[in-house]
Design a protein that fits this description.
Distance between the termini: 72 Å
Structural class: mainly alpha
Number of domains: 1
Order of helices and strands: HHHHH
Radius of gyration: 21 Å
Number of strands: 0
Number of helices: 5
């Protein structure tokens, strides 16, 4: 109702700030999904941290904010590729275990 009383040419700063935050979250959503891949192993994390020129810390010694502070979002395509590769490896390893179990009886 208040918005209707404001002149049409006046930008709504709160709305614009909210739009920017939603857009940023949407951009990072795919990055979060790629980084949250349960198939990522230490060798994959080594590659991811290599993208940002940092040594790989212990797996419980970093969080998303740490990675974003190092601008991991600029390397999204490569992170996504590493994550997809990890998923493929996990699928193949699962299939190999299944086949091995079948043959071992």
């Amino acid at each position: 109702m208040l918005r209707q009383q404001l002149p049409r040419d006046t930008p709504d700063q709160v709305l614009e700030a909210l739009k920017a935050e939603v857009k940023e979250f949407g951009t990072n959503n795919n990055l979060i999904l790629a980084l949250g891949n349960k198939a990522l192993e230490s060798k994959h994390w080594d590659k991811i941290f290599g993208l940002i020129g940092q040594p790989t810390p212990a797996l419980n010694a970093f969080n998303l904010k740490t990675l974003l502070d190092f601008k991991i979002d600029l390397e999204f395509e490569k992170v996504d590729e590493i994550s997809a590769f990890a998923s493929g490896e996990a699928t193949i390893n699962g299939q190999l275990k299944e086949i091995s179990g079948f043959w071992e009886g």
